[in-house]
């Protein structure tokens, strides 16, 4: 739990480990409304304790994970290995079948991606997956899931992203040259 003052309100961040007693012990200056950011699971007793403070209360969404940094993995991931990070993950090597990369941000593979990749694991469908060779059987971006069609593999670097509610894979060269139709993942 963190409390800070802003010009218009008191900003309170709940991480999920707070109790109703923690809320009751807060010493708050008079006159400012309370802005509560919920970043973790909060029991009903904590919500009731917040309401019992008798202040105007606004719930705000948790801040995004954009500031969580980038994890660089300098090796090939073998079957059974899993890398999970709340920010972006860059793999300097291959992601073999049976290996998994799960990122709250983007997934970038400087090598062959043949294992599972999940970008935007917290639900952010604005994220992408990039690989020098994209041969994964399954891709996930935010809440979206795509299975690769049998026998269809792209050549060269590719980018997977969500377009109109589905994952599309397009050649990286498309971003610098005349358009090529994207392939479905």
UniProtKB/TrEMBL annotation:
Septum formation inhibitor MinC C-terminal domain ranges (all copies): 72-169
Keywords assigned: Cell cycle, Cell division, Septation
Pfam families: MinC_C
InterPro entries: CAP/MinC_C (IPR016098), MinC (IPR013033), MinC_C_sf (IPR036145), Septum_form_inhib_MinC_C (IPR005526)
This protein's name: Septum site-determining protein MinC
């Amino acid at each position: 739990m963190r409390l800070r003052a802003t010009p218009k309100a008191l900003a309170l961040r709940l991480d999920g480990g707070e109790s109703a007693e923690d809320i009751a012990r807060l010493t708050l200056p008079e006159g400012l409304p309370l802005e509560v950011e919920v970043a973790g699971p909060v029991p009903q007793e904590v919500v009731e304790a917040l309401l019992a403070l008798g202040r105007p209360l606004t719930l705000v969404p948790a801040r995004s994970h954009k500031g969580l940094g980038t994890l660089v993995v300098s090796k090939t991931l073998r079957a059974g290995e899993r890398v999970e990070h709340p920010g972006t993950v860059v793999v300097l090597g291959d992601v073999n079948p049976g290996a998994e990369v799960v990122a709250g941000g983007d997934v970038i593979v400087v090598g062959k991606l043949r294992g599972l990749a999940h970008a935007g694991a917290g639900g952010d469908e604005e994220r992408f997956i990039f690989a020098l060779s994209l041969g994964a059987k399954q891709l996930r971006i935010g809440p979206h899931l795509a299975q690769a069609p049998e026998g269809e593999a792209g050549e060269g670097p590719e980018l997977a992203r969500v377009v109109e509610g589905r994952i599309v894979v397009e050649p990286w060269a498309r971003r610098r040259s005349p358009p090529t139709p994207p392939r479905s993942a």
